[in-house]
Write a structure and sequence with these properties.
Elements lengths: L7 E3 L6 E3 L2 E3 L1 H23 L4 H4 L2 H20 L2 H4 L3 H5 L2 E4 L2 E4 L7 H19 L3 H25 L14 E3 L6 E2 L2 H22 L8 H17 L17 H22 L2
Parallel strand pairs: 1-6
Antiparallel strand pairs: 2-3, 4-5, 6-7
Length: 273
């Protein structure tokens, strides 16, 4: 495909600054901003629902480690199991073995499906510890999650990763750090969609606050995010070699059960009084 002269060229610096000798990347900044937004939104929901502050305080740490560990393990085990099962420490720690020895590289690979499973596990442990009702916590987290997901996908865009397929359309962007081909900015498609899903969920909880605790918002979050994820995958390049020739890629296969669970929970929550 020839380069379109009107295509937007994306060639940002990967790191705006360094801290104590470590490069701080835009991807990390987007993660931090996303988690901070999630923190304050959840704090607002807890206060609005008159849930005690001491029940909110440990929630952030449960969510942070649940998402990070789940997303990392999800990428390693779903997408590159052969490599990481024989390089165990690279799966757990943000390091990589090079000819010059161990090198700090950050976590090169995080999977949203694994992060979702990790978050569920962390919330279950949190509810066991605090005696909170699991359905209430799930619904509140679900109202918040899309804004965090939007920031993570924005971080992917800044990193010029999770690329879209080549396109002649008006939305084509040339990721100069990768190649000279206009591509779908699939990361931006997802970021914008997740932001809209957040706005939709926020407006719904303001109109139907009594539905918090019925799993309606939990279902809404899963159904919207993973249905969009399923279809946007058709516009993405193959992430790993084994997906070549597959009718559905790994991201789509993993999205299907979340879509079904989400739709079922939405229906159950809507009918539940």
């Amino acid at each position: 495909m020839t380069t379109l002269p009107c295509a937007f060229v994306w060639d940002p610096s990967m790191s705006p600054f360094s801290l104590f000798g470590f490069e701080i990347r835009y991807y990390s900044i987007c993660w931090i901003v996303g988690l901070a937004l999630g923190y304050f939104i959840m704090q607002y929901l807890y206060k609005k629902q008159k849930i005690a502050d001491e029940l909110f305080e440990p929630l952030f740490m449960y969510c942070f480690f649940g998402i990070l560990i789940g997303a990392r393990l999800g990428h390693c085990l779903f997408y590159e199991p052969q490599y990481y099962l024989s390089h165990f420490w690279e799966m757990i720690l943000p390091i990589k073995m090079t000819p010059d020895g161990w090198k700090f590289v950050g976590y090169l690979g995080l999977a949203s499906h694994g992060g979702t499973i990790g978050l569920f596990t962390a919330l279950w442990l949190y509810c066991r510890k605090t005696k909170m009702k699991f359905a209430i916590v799930l619904d509140n987290i679900a109202i918040t999650t899309p804004i965090v997901a939007a920031m993570i996908r924005l971080g992917n865009f800044m990193n010029s990763e999770i690329l879209g397929r080549a396109t002649d359309g008006p939305t084509g962007i040339i990721f100069a750090q990768v190649d000279n081909v206009p591509r779908h900015p699939a990361q931006l498609y997802e970021a914008i969609a997740y932001l809209l899903f957040f706005v939709g969920g926020w407006l719904l909880q303001r109109k139907f606050p009594q539905k918090v605790g019925t799993l309606f918002y939990f279902g809404y979050c899963l159904a919207t995010i993973f249905t969009f994820r399923f279809f946007v995958e058709f516009l993405k390049e193959v992430q790993v070699d084994f997906e070549n020739g597959m009718l559905l890629d790994m991201g789509q296969i993993l999205s299907i059960p979340f879509m079904i669970i989400g739709a079922a929970c939405m229906l159950y929550g809507w009918k539940k009084k």
